[in-house]
Amino acid sequence: MSLQNASIKLTHFIIGGFDTVKRPVAVGVVMLITYLLAVTGSLVNIIFIVSDKQLHKPMYLLICNLAVVDILYTSSSTPTMIRVLLAGVNTISYVECLIQMCVFQLGGIMELFSLTIMAFDRLIAIIYPLRYHSYLTNTRIMVLTYILWIVASNLVAVLPAIVVPLPHCSLRLRYAFCDAAAVIRTTCVDAEKFFNLGAILSFFLFFFTFTFICLSYCVILFFVKLSSNNDRRKMGSTLVSHLICVICLYCPMFVIGILTRFGVVLSLEERQGLLIGTILGPSLVNPLVYCLRTKEIKNKIIKIFRKVNTIFRKVNTAG
Asked: Residue limits of the G-protein coupled receptors family 1 profile domain (predicted)?
């Protein structure tokens, strides 16, 4: 029997990734709270940067771009997982699934690109502090960011071109949402060759972006040795903020995308946990790191809290 004859006509998928979860409501509530905190933190960064002209500088534009990417990345799949866990709705239409798959991959690639361009920004700022604003203007940063979005979109456009023509033999997704691996596993073809192709593409993305980030760190550390103690503290703070974001994103991505192709075996629960951590971890950590460790944004938050506190005191006094 040919694959085409054995295939079924798809209108929807059944999400089976949480079938073995013993306390779906508890897990769903934790994910919902984490998701709301992540989106709120990113929105706060965006609102502060867009509304304050003093923050219309290359570094803050990149932080704003990262916040947009975080919202896109976590919102691509988390609402679906929360819906399955809390409402028990475990079906998703075929078209919606394909859109989710592409948006999720776009968000993941842009996370890598965003952290890389932010490393480049800090590298130029530390090596050429006096000429930084002449080298990296707002216009150049915007153009560079647009280029990265276009490149990422073109890479993602390959996915539906590969998946849509394939015949499907199953409605059931093994994982918690519509990532590429889950959708390809429902097809009637040998999935390994597609996974190997994905691993090769992931390897090159990881290799080039991570290598660039590491080289920028090496150069920055070299300049740190030649700097005064005060400059060392500023550079160290910059590195720590960026390093926290890099670790949260790259570690689980590297395990899922690369190590599993080299013999590392993960159970379904382990893979799901890493995947969810890859989605929610960076999206929660990034806005917190850049809110708390960026002086201008932190000062704005403190001023807002002081104003709110003053208003409450006046209300209580009047009462």
From this structure: 41-290
The SS3 call for residue 309 is: helix
Per the listing, tokens 């917190």 go with 288
Predicted confidence (pLDDT) per residue in 236-291, tens digit: 666 777 788 888 888 888 887 777 767 777 777 777 888 888 888 888 888 888 77
Cβ contact 180:157 at 8 Å = no
Nearest to 249, CA basis, from 59, 119, 153: 119
Instruction: Spell out the residues 6+ positions from residue 76 whose beta carbon is closer than 8 angstroms to its own.
Output: 100, 103, 104, 106, 107, 279
The structure's pTM equals 0.87
Using CA atoms, how far apart are residues 271 and 94, in angstroms rounded to an integer?
Answer: 23
Q: What's the number of CA atoms in the CB half-sphere (13 Å) around residue 213?
A: 24
Q: What span, in angstroms and rounded, lies between the C-alpha atoms of 76 and 70?
A: 10
Contacts 24+ apart (CB under 8 A), 267-270: 268/17, 268/20, 268/174, 268/175, 269/20
Q: Name the E strands within the chain.
A: 12-15, 91-93, 172-173
